[in-house]
Write a structure and sequence with these properties.
By secondary structure, the chain is of the alpha/beta class. It contains three helices and 20 strands. The protein has helices at residues 12-31, 34-40, 106-110, and strands at 7-8, 43-44, 49-50, 55-56, 62-64, 69-70, 75-77, 82-84, 89-90, 95-97, 99-100, 113-116, 119-121, 126-127, 132-133, 138-139, 144-145, 150-151, 159-162, 167-171.
Length: 172
């Protein structure tokens, strides 16, 4: 999974890792304890915080920089690494989705094989509410993504990008 190769989500080791993460997620959502997020995430920088209701698959593949904010109802499917830079603001109900399913190999999809590709969000990025970032996407430093956008490809630094699919509308 971590190498970006085909895997099955029913693998016993992955199931156990998701169960561990779900216990921590449930504890965090009930308590809002930053200490729980520190146990769950691969890393979290000073001054960063996460609002409940939060969901993820594994947790340890999430790396969040300093002074960043993840608002209510975020879903981070961290089948691959999710890197969030410093000073990032992520709006409510945002989804960062690293999982991919076979498109042309119908039998592999039927057997529940999947792959994953990392998501990287640069420093000082703002994702508006309800943004969806797809697998393999990098968003450059100082970019702003408008609410409700679906980001299917890389976004360069210092731009405003909006829409479905998300497109650059101007430089910042």
């Amino acid at each position: 999974m971590m190498a970006g190769e085909l895997y099955q989500d029913s693998d016993p080791e992955l199931v156990a890792e998701r169960r561990r993460a779900q216990q921590l997620v449930d504890e965090f959502n009930a308590t809002r304890s930053h200490a729980v997020i520190e146990k769950l995430f691969g890393s979290i920088g000073a001054g960063s915080w996460v609002m409940p209701r939060f969901q993820c698959d594994y947790g340890y593949q999430i790396h969040m920089g300093a002074n960043s904010f993840l608002n209510y109802d975020a879903i981070l499917m961290d089948c691959a690494t999710i890197t969030i830079g410093d000073d990032v603001s992520i709006g409510p109900r945002t989804q960062l989705l690293t999982a991919l399913h076979p498109i042309e190999d119908h039998e592999a999809r039927r057997q529940r094989f999947e792959t994953a590709a990392p998501i990287t969000i640069g420093d000082n990025v703002w994702l508006g509410g309800g943004v969806i970032v797809c697998a393999g996407v990098t968003i450059g430093d100082n970019a702003v993504i408008g609410a409700g956008s679906v980001v299917t490809r890389d976004i360069p630094p210092r731009v405003l990008a909006v829409g479905n699919p998300c497109r650059v509308v101007r430089e910042l």
